[in-house]
Amino acid sequence: MSISIIETNWTWNTGLTSRSATKYIALHHAAASSASAADVDRWHKQNGWSGIGYHFYVRKDGRIYRGRPLGALGAHVSGKNDVSLGICAEGNYTTEQMPDAQKRAIAELLDYLKSNFYPSAEIVGHREIGSSDCPGKNYPLAELKNYKNILNGGELMSYEYDELKRRYAELKEDFDRLRASREPVYQYGVSLPDWGAATVYKLVNKGFLEGEAPDNLNLSESMLRVLVVNDRAGLYD
Ligand SMILES: [Zn+2]
User: Fold this and answer.
1) Cα 181 to middle of ligand 1, angstroms
2) Per-residue pLDDT for 98 more than 90?
3) Strands in 76-187 per DSSP E
4) For residue 218, pLDDT beyond 80
């Protein structure tokens, strides 16, 4: 799977160093309902850090921004930075619910990182390896640890969509067949059989029957028979 990462050009206040290992991929929230990657970079510089402390920052609409370079030491879990990579989600998941677009983007990012770089890294919430409530009680932590289900769910949805399209094509064929086999549809004067003409003219004159268009009664043969039988029974007199 290829994912789209928005490359950035941060200035670092001090030089970055490398991380010694990647035992954890730590999930965070910004604890802010609306914040750009640049906002986070500014806040972290205000903390006296070199710049944005996370390796990735994911907006609510699913856009993924690069923070620190992949192998760099981050600043996101006190005491565990040397062994963990950090992904932060825009939003306050103490109170908000994560939008699907963001959840899916984080699942794709996790898949990308696990498949290509850190197959044995454990996905954890910040609070599981540090002293914090982050990423908030509403953050879909269990779901994202099983990120493959989210990705497979997406495949299921596209499967269902294909299935619906196939069913629609079949239904359309059924309709076309029905149309082709439809009984004769009568028009005023032109194709009315003798046995039905008197009844039709009577009903039109009385205003009981109107065509869809001036010359089209849109009247099927079985309906015409019903009308004629009713007429002979005196219903329209
Ligand atoms: Zn955190």
Assistant:
1) 67
2) yes
3) 84-89, 122-125, 185-186
4) no
* Angle between helical axes of 147-180 and 100-116 (0-180°, round to 10): 120
Closest to 90 in 3D by CA, of 122, 119, 118, 52: 52
Going from the Cα of 9 to the center of ligand 1, the distance in angstroms, rounded, reads 23
Both tokens of residue 23?
């035992």
pLDDT above 70 covers a percentage of the chain that reads 85
DSSP 184: P
Q: How far is the CA of 75 from the centre of ligand 1 (A)?
A: 10
Exposed e or buried b for every residue in 196-205, given b needs 16+ CB within 10 A?
Answer: beebbeebee
Ligand 1 mean position, distance from CA 82 (Å): 15
Q: Is a pLDDT exceeding 60 seen at residue 237?
A: yes
pTM score of the predicted model: 0.66
CA of 141 to the centre of ligand 1 (A): 12
Outline where 47-145 has alpha helix (H): 100-116, 126-129, 141-145
| DSSP, res 182 | P
Which one-letter amino acid corresponds to residue 180? Answer: A
Walk me through the domains of the chain, giving residue ranges and CATH numbers: 5-150 (3.40.80.10), 185-232 (no CATH)
